[in-house]
Amino acid sequence: PPVDFESYLKVPTENPSLAAAKRVAGKRPAPTDFESYLKVPDPQSVTEKFSSHETSDDEVAPPSHLKPVGVLYGTEFGLSREVCEKLCDTLKGTGEYWPLLMSMDDYPQGMDLNNFQALFIACSTQGEGVPPTDSRPFCSWLHGPDAGAISNMRFSVCALGDTSYTHFAQCGKDIDARLETLGATRVVSRVDVNKEDWIAIDGWINSVVSALAGMELKSLAESQESMNFKKASVDTQGDVTYSKSKPYLAEITSVTSLCSIRGQDDKNTIRVDIDLGDSGLQYCVGDSLGVWPRNDEKAVQEIIQFMGWDGDQSMAMPSWHYKLQGARLKGESASLKDLLTICYDIKAPKPDILDILVEDGSDARVADPATRAKYLGERHVIDTLQDFRANENSKLTDPGVLLKKLRQLAPRLYSISSSPLASPSSVTLTVAVVEYEQLDKARIGVCSTYLDQRVSEGTKVPVYMYENPDFRLPDDDLTPIIMVGPGTGVAPFRAFLQQRIQSNATCGENILFFGSRRRDQDFLYGDELTQWQESGKLSLITAFSREQDEKVYVQHRLREHGELVWRTLEKGGHFYICGDGEYMSKAVESALLSVIESHQGKGMEAAEEYVKSLVASKRLQKDVWIS
After folding, report:
1. Which of 242, 276, 274, 246 is nearest to 455 (CA)?
2. What residues pair up with 415 in beta bridges, in sequence order?
3. Would you give the DSSP letter of residue 330?
4. What is the helix (H) or strand (E) element at residue 429, kind and residue range?
5. Which DSSP category does 499 fall into?
6. Helix/strand/coil (H, E, C) string of 368-399?
7. Secondary structure of 201-248 in the HEC alphabet?
8. Residue 460, burial from CB neighbour count under 10 angstroms (0-12, 13-18, 19+)
9. How many whole angstroms separate alpha carbon 170 and alpha carbon 73?
């Protein structure tokens, strides 16, 4: 059996198809390089044909008396897939249905929806109402003219989102409305789910199962259609298109600290420069880069050692793991250690993990949904294993039992801090290094510490572009802009400024509200910003919260400069917010509303209508996140 990735994946360095990817001549891949995990495709294999099913057990021919049902998901970080997997398990458990689990990502040109007698969909929403990255082609097809009329198909949609965002669950809402418009019949009302509300999700699943029980569905034997849809073929010798599920191995060219660390309470932020090489990846300012991280080796070993498992044990590679273009895995297995390192989330435990840890379901720590959510929200996977003495659980002598209860290790999105005018074949990221204590234990951010502490110059990491069409500069360079970006929220605005300044075109006024703790410790890109200010290319307004007795934040500066803000908006200016969406963004929007009310002089209702008009005309745009 393989003992590590190098023994089951191979890179023949002499092969020309990998030569372009190896930009350090004569350099042998380090054991942690993703190059080490590659194998050159079989030259006889021109295209890779995918199975139409997501899980390996679906490869077995189903009993003909079962009734086929379609289950489709669109996901950015994996929750929609978890929902659909649970629905599939529930449907199989009835002994009546054969669910076909599919990802929107695999059908960029759509599918014949009339082949389904019933189709159930879970889809998340990204940013300000857009579909998940790789699901966008499918959603464009669905909302376009090529998606024909539907007859005799029953459906229901589980729309996932976050109520902190203006366009909560918008993608699922749009899919639900579109299917009805095309002629499909809704059998269960759409459920809009905030974050990971498993009570709402389970309610939707139960409603779907109940609705199916009252339908007259054809069995596989009676069905004329096999529902054996082909996923999109991948031409391994043609043009390469990189994506979230097929990322590009990009080289780290430098990692530098942007902060002066003087005490234990000081937080670090790093600048990460990444070479896009010959990938052909293109981006606009406002876009983000997705990075597939690796778990900390110490955290992986802690789980393996506590459970008494063999880290070198060979196990099946999950079918949903990303594929590396221009190469393929040597086999369908990997060591347990490697699977826990690159495939599975060992930080945030799924509620399903309690199914195998709590024997009778009566443990007071997880007795009801509220206590269960609080318990899991404070713990990592290792904590739950230790709390419930999982090493004594006979069900878990097989690591595969636990792996089925873990989430996919999700990519992290970072706003790109550079302009393609300044860096056409590379990107700069601005990453806050996450380190904190919880339950008297040291915690770390998976990807931020990976980039800060576990990579070096020359390391290659899997990346992809994440388009952010709702966070764009004005079409007219003469339009003035106001940018509010404290901390790492300044990242896209550095790109905005590079774009407008380096285009050599006359542009409107650039106003930036930046905030951090102290000027001499964490004034991110302070030298650049100050230089642009001194040259008259930027109006820079700062808020250093710890430099005076009373803390001052960007929202306070916004109110202080209300006249400037109002005058700029009245000139047709655009207003941008980037950063924390839980507190900062709300405080800034409140301050903006206050400024408008004060200077417009028509009362709060009129000010609220003014803000709505800014949003509708895309003059108020946000790129915010919830930690």
Report:
1. 274
2. 288
3. S
4. strand 426-432
5. H
6. CHHHHHHHHHCCCHHHHHHHCCHHHCHHHHCH
7. HHHHHHHHHHHHHCCCCCCCCCCCCCCCCCCCCEECCCCCCCCCCCCE
8. buried
9. 15
Question: Are the C-beta atoms of residues 344 and 353 closer than 8 Å to each other?
Answer: no
Q: How far apart are CA 283 and CA 416, in angstroms?
A: 9
Residue 286 and residue 280: Cα distance in Å, rounded?
18
CA distance 169 to 131: 10
Q: Which residue has the tokens 């294993």?
A: 385
CA dihedral defined by 377, 381, 384, 385, rounded to 10 degrees?
180
pTM, to two decimals: 0.83
Instruction: Return d(Cα 8, Cα 114) in angstroms, integer.
Output: 42
* Contacts of residue 412, Cβ cutoff 8 Å, sequence gap at least 6: 290, 291, 293, 446, 447, 448
Question: Could you tell me the maximum CA-CA distance found in the chain, to the nearest angstrom?
Answer: 77
The CA angle 430-436-442, to the nearest 5 degrees, is: 125
> How many Cα atoms are found within 13 Å in the side-chain-facing hemisphere of 351?
20
Question: Which tokens go with 134?
Answer: 């790789």
pLDDT digits (tens, 9 = 90+) for 15-55: 333 233 333 233 333 334 444 333 333 322 222 222 233 43
How many angstroms separate the CA atoms of 361 and 372, rounded?
Answer: 11
Q: 404: exposed, middle or buried (C-beta count within 10 Å: 0-12, 13-18, 19+)?
A: middle
Contact at 8 Å (CB) between 217 and 67?
yes
Q: Angle of helix 526-534 relative to helix 491-502, nearest 10 degrees?
A: 40
Closest CA to 495 of 283, 290, 291: 283
Give the separation between CA 244 and CA 323, rounded to whole angstroms. 9
Beta-carbon contacts of 503 under 8 Å, excluding residues fewer than 6 positions away, are 421, 477
What single DSSP character describes residue 13? Answer: T
Structure tokens, 450:
């990976």
394-406: per-residue pLDDT in tens?
A: 889 999 999 999 9
**One-character DSSP codes across 515-561:** EES-HHHH-TTHHHHHHHHHTTS-EEEEEETTSSSS---HHHHHHHT
Three-state SS for 497?
helix
How far is residue 6's CA from residue 3's CA, in Å, rounded to a whole number?
Answer: 8
Q: How far apart are CA 355 and CA 191, in angstroms?
A: 25
Among candidate residues 1, 536, 462, 504, the one with its CA nearest the CA of residue 248? 462
Strands 539-544 and 510-516: parallel
pLDDT, tens digit (0-9, with 9 covering 90-100), for 92-132: 999 999 999 999 999 999 999 999 999 999 999 987 788 99
Nearest to 120 by CA among 169, 157, 159, 173: 157
Contact 528, 496 (CB under 8 A): no
Measure the CA–CA gap between 588 and 402, rounded to whole angstroms. 43
Give the span between the Cα atoms of 6 and 251, in whole angstroms: 19
Report the distance separating Cα 611 and Cα 589, nearest Å: 9
**Segment 181-223, tens digit of pLDDT:** 999 999 999 999 999 999 999 999 999 999 999 999 999 988 7
Q: Which helix (H) or strand (E) holds 412?
A: strand 412-415
Asked if 176 and 61 count as a contact pair (C-beta separation under 8 A), the reply is no
Token readout for 414 is 């970072």
Six token digits for residue 71: 């289950």
CA dist 109 and 408 (Å) reads 26
Q: How far apart are CA 354 and CA 367, in angstroms?
A: 11
Task: Name residue 99's beta-bridge partners.
Answer: 69
